[in-house]
Each structure stands twice: as C-alpha cells, then as structure tokens.
Amino acid sequence: MKTNIDYVFKDKSIYIKSDEQIFELSGISQESFIKIWNEIQEGHLHCEEQDVVKKKIIEFLKTIHAFEDVANTASFLQMIGLKMEHKAFENHVIGICGDDDLVELYIRKSPSQNVVNLNEEVTDDYDIGLIILRNFNRKRITKCNEMMFNNGVPYNSVIFDNVSFEVTYTIPKETSCLNCKRLRETENNVYGEVFSLFNDSSHESKEYVPEEIIQLALSFVAVQMLKEAMQMNDLSVENELIQTVYAYSLLNEGWRTHNLFKHPNCELCFPESVNTQVFEVRL
C-alpha cells in the first residue's frame, strides 16, 4: 500500500487520510478495521466469500489508488488521470544549442533524457527545442534563435545574465521569438542603440555562472518541457499566442513575469514578401 495513507478513530467513525483528502468510514468496529487494515498492509488481499467488509475496504482503497506503484513521472501522471497516450515525456527528444559549456552541462545533468546536441549536428528531428546561453553572447543568441525558428519545432530559451535568467517559450510562426525580445529591449533601453552595435560581435563570454542559478533554471525549464509534452499528448491547454517571459533574479524580488508581443520589425516573425506585385487599377 502507498505510504501517504493513514487513519484515525473518533467516536464511532474511522477517518482515512489520503494525501490531503479525508474519507469517513462507518459501520465497522475499530477492532475489525485494525485487523483488516493490518492484513492489507502485509499484502494479504485475498478475500473469502464471507469477507464482505474486507472486500468493500479493498474496493474503496482501489478508488484512491492505494495499491498503484508510482515510480516515475509517467506513472504519476497516469495515476491522476493524465496518461501520456502518444509518447511518454522520457521518450521525447530534446534538441539543444547554445554556449558549449552550458549545453554540455545540461547533457551531463540529464542522462536519462534523449538529447541531440545541435551545436554538433544539424537536424530538425527532435520534439522540443532548448536554447541555453549567456545574455552577453548576442550574435550566438541571434544565430540559435534563427536556427530553431526555421526548424519549426517549439523551443524554450534560457538566457543567463550574472545572477539572473529569463525563460521563454517560442512556437515558430505563432508566438514572438528571441529576436522580438531583443528588439523590444533595444527600444526600452536608453543605451539600446549602443548595445545593438554589438549584435554582430563574434567575441563571446565564457564567464562563470553560479551553479545554484543554473540548477534553478534547468529545474524550471524541465517542468515547462513536461507541460509541453503533455500538450503534445492533448492533456493540457494550448499556449497562448502572447508569449510569457519568466524572469528570476537572486538580487531582486525573485520571480516575475511579463508578456512579450511579436515585434513588427522582426524579420523572422514578419518576413518580407519575395513576390511583391503592384497592380494598377483604372477608375
């Protein structure tokens, strides 16, 4: 039996607690209940024809999943009615690109996950994308975003900046992308135009990122990817077209969120027409 189930007696009632749910049983003596409960705990689930009460208790325990073996995320989701019918999360392939050291760190920290290193292999054969980069490396951010966008596979982005990071989720041709984000930041920063002068610089930062910050970011994005896998299995609400940016800072008030709209000057989200024609209409 699962370990998150307990019972207490009060007056003539028996209260069973499963997680934070309470169930009341009545019509059975405390002595009989304890005897039956101990038998069940020891794995003796066989019932003789006359064991009517024991049968009913076992049937009740089955309704609250008391005997289900939950050993991983897939079995846990199945227990609460969210079975991955098409493909379990563990079987989804993650395509990752970004700063080499951060990509290698992610791969080492996720030994059970199927990961394709897009820094080394050009492919669009993956289920969920992930960009992981330092904010300083503007040219690489642009390159990774363009590659992921053109592959057409939804992707997450984790951008580190000292003791802060931001996580975004992009659905190509539907939501905004990292290029939109950069354009918005340029408009909203007094020195935005000066920062944009570094967009094509090949000089890259390899400075240390605190491990605690990295672990928090990767744990958060792992949950986000689980939600995305659930969406692929038709188990949750689709993402809104307005992209949400999740930001965390160790030095400020922790988590904050804001919406990111497509930028009209983004050449990825709004590509120029290649076959523009002018028609003359005589009135």
CATH topology grouping of the largest domain: Rossmann fold
How many DSSP E strands?
A: 10
CATH level-two architecture of the largest domain: 3-Layer(aba) Sandwich
Largest sheet: 7 strands, mixed
| CATH superfamily placement of the largest domain | NAD(P)-binding Rossmann-like Domain
Number of helices: 8
Q: What sequence of helices (H) and strands (E) makes up the elements?
A: EEEHHHEHEEHEEHHHEE
Q: What features would you describe in this structure?
A:
This protein is α/β, with parallel strands linked by helices and 283 residues long. It folds into two domains: 5-68, no CATH class; 91-260, Rossmann fold. Helices cover 33% and strands 22% of the residues. It has helices at 30-41, 52-63, 73-79, 100-109, 138-151, 178-188, 192-196, 211-232; strands at residues 5-10, 13-18, 21-25, 93-98, 114-117, 128-134, 155-161, 164-170, 243-249, 254-260. The strands form two sheets. The protein has a seven-stranded mixed β-sheet with strand order 5-4-6-7-8-9-10, with helices on both faces. A three-stranded antiparallel β-sheet has the order 1-2-3, with no helix packed on it. It is elongated and about 85 Å long. The N and C termini lie far apart (83 Å). The mean pLDDT is 86.
